[in-house]
Amino acid sequence: MDNPLKTPPPYPIASVDHALRAATILQMEGGATVSQIAERLGVARSTAHRLLAMLVYRDFAVQDEDRVYRAGPVLAAHSQSLVSRLRAAALPHLHRVVDLLDETTNLIVRTGDTARFIASVECRQALRVGSREGMVFPAHRTTAGLLLLADLTDEELDEVYAPERYHDRPAERPDLPRLRTELRRLRRNGFAVNKERSERGLIAVGVPVRDRDRTALAGLSVSMPSVRYDPKRLQSLVATLEAAVQALEEDLADQF
Question: How do residues 100-116 score in pLDDT, each as one tens digit?
């Protein structure tokens, strides 16, 4: 994953950077298709295919029968990816939240300025938010993404949203002073509410998942149609999520 504290080299080689980023995605997130890698890197599908083919040739990647690329022998020599372990540990708790609230529940991680849904459990109601697993959204437009951004220092946030990263898409860069104000409020509250910010007709409430050092690893959120959201339930929703997160953090502490 990108480290926002590092300064890029003065003469970067784009193809090498793309290959390294692709390898990192495979190792940290468990796997990806050609289309997903192309989207994440901002390159053509043919370029992503060539990058992955070279990673396979050098044993940094393997391709499954379902055409998904995963970490190869070189990367697999390390321990199972944090994201895949986090997902496995969280799934029972996501199911428990769905049983309690009967609303779709998600686990989200941040990579740079994006938020990826790594697990999603749908509720049983006819009108419901569908699974978002595998989807990627701008971090500042998702509940969990905002919570994870709130864990950054001002300097780290500046690096994530450095203007040069948006030279070809300036409209996608958020208003940083406004975002900082919002993140300060989230730090005080300890939870976030997203009212139709990522998708029309959808409201989500989320809380952070932290490691032993209290660093935010992910966000746990519950999503529902806006017509079903009642602000009077907010305290109860947050309490249910916080109880699930506490149990998940205990499991993570035992495992990691």
Answer: 999 999 999 998 888 98
Q: Which long-range contacts (CB under 8 A, 24 or more apart) does 79-85 make?
A: 81/27, 81/28, 81/29, 81/30, 82/28, 82/217, 83/28, 83/29, 83/30, 83/109, 83/118, 84/29, 84/30, 85/255, 85/256
d(CA 163, CA 157): 12
Helix axes 234-255, 82-101, angle to 10 degrees: 150
Q: Which of 155, 23, 30, 7 is nearest to 80 (CA)?
A: 30
Question: Are 225 and 129 a contacting pair, CB within 8 Å?
Answer: yes
Whole-angstrom distance, CA of residue 219 vs CA of residue 34: 26
**How many angstroms separate the CA atoms of 146 and 219, rounded?**
9
- Type of residue found at 168: D
What's the rounded Cα separation, in Å, for the pair 175 and 248?
34
Q: Report, in angstroms and rounded to the nearest whole number, the Rg of the chain calculated over CA atoms.
A: 19
By the 8 A CB rule, do 22 and 41 touch?
A: yes
Domains of the chain, with CATH numbers?
A: 14-76 (1.10.10.10), 82-255 (3.30.450.40)
Cα–Cα distance measured from residue 210 to residue 203, given in angstroms and rounded to the nearest whole number: 23
- What's the predicted TM-score (pTM) here? 0.69
- Whether residue 78 is predicted with pLDDT greater than 60 in this model: the reply is no
Is the pLDDT reported for residue 40 higher than 80?
A: yes
